[in-house]
# Entry
Amino acid sequence: MAQRGRPRTFDRDAALTSAMHLFWEHGYESTSLSQLKAAMGGGISAPSFYAAFESKEALYKEALERYMSLYGDLTKSLYDASIAPREAVLMTLQRAAKMYCEGGHPKGCMVASGAMGAGASGSEDITQLLQGMRGRARAGFHACVERGIDTGELRESTDAKSLAIAFDSFFMGISVLARDGVPYAVMKKAVVQAMGMWDCAVKPARD
# Structure
């Protein structure tokens, strides 16, 4: 009869949440196995860790899935054609500013902070995964600008790619500001200022 392994002395779901918070706070490369084991508690050994999560990379991917399931709806309005394009962009930036500054989890965005150190040897898959996620958000902003042009709200001469990148830069940038302690009240005002980029491209109304 095969010998059974030692029963786990930790809650896997709680351990995954702890890992998510660590990766969110420090990024993939800067989070060590010893930090992960300590955060999980229960005196988890290296063999038990690998039995539960296979590898640090696999754990990161699972933690990122958990993050997206909890907070990944920030950009959903960008792809909702029932929402006016300007409103969709505004909703995304407002939601992001609020979530990035909330308590109960690390500040900022895990996808943005995950880029810290990513690209080092052995993390190419992680780098590509994060780039893909950031690219989808950027594509969402681009889709909204294109809709604004197509509906006649924005001037036909509007550079959709540049305006989308400007919004995406703000979207990613406020994650860093939240981590630096910029308060939510300031973020809300900054979102209003950022929407001025859209308003500057609005097609003048005819008399």
The first helix runs from residue 12 to 26. Residues 1-7 have pLDDT under 50 and may be disordered. The chain has ten helices and no strands. The radius of gyration is 21 Å.
